[in-house]
């Protein structure tokens, strides 16, 4: 007979793509997860995962099971927050936050001690990565995204606008000289994103500065681009709030900016989960208090 615990193990492996990652997510052993998945497959008479040394991928049967497993998870989450449920008033549990790496590393990570001080029984997982997160498959409970999401059973609140500008290091400019016009960028080393790994059109801002932009060094991480530009690799488009006070970096053509916005997003099914809602509210309130950091003119 299928039970919720079977689905919990199934979903953990599906999300992590490996037995070890699922075990770490569930706080148990790799052997136990492997055993539970095998037992679940035997009970169903279906193979749910193709297991290889590099990880696990869903079979067709596994993909067919996903919608029902997610629906069951949603029902269990709602049940846990029903009035009268034991412990429903206590803010506890694990919340996973997905965020762009510039925002996650340069800003949000430093705010997490304040969140933990408010809710000592809350476990926080921050995934600052240059990628999109699937909230419907619970890759994250909450996501900070660039630009307002347009589809899905999602709720969203705008956090703040922010700007990006052209920067180079003092060492680079001493060696190569400063461009006198935007068109002069064609004579310089340029640092930008890996084109085929850009996960949202909002990141395609380099050519808004100069249509002829062609990066000689491509890096998928915004934070790593900052490191490369600071080390003298070339000229790059960097987040103003990340580098504004960096003594090694020089703003080029400071009147020319790209404007973007951060939004916090969560699945509507998580709306009534206390530890998700308080974390979302904390992010919104904290960013709004620091709005001048992201957009000094506001």
UniProtKB/TrEMBL annotation:
Coiled-coil annotated residue ranges, if any: none
Key word RNA-binding present: no
Keywords: DNA-binding, Plasmid, Transcription, Transcription regulation
InterPro entries: LysR-type_TF_proteobact-type (IPR058163), LysR_HTH_N (IPR000847), LysR_subst-bd (IPR005119), WH-like_DNA-bd_sf (IPR036388), WH_DNA-bd_sf (IPR036390)
Gene Ontology MF terms in the entry: DNA-binding transcription factor activity; sequence-specific DNA binding
Listed GO biological process terms: DNA-templated transcription
Family of this protein: Belongs to the LysR transcriptional regulatory family.
Protein name, entry field: Transcriptional regulator, LysR family
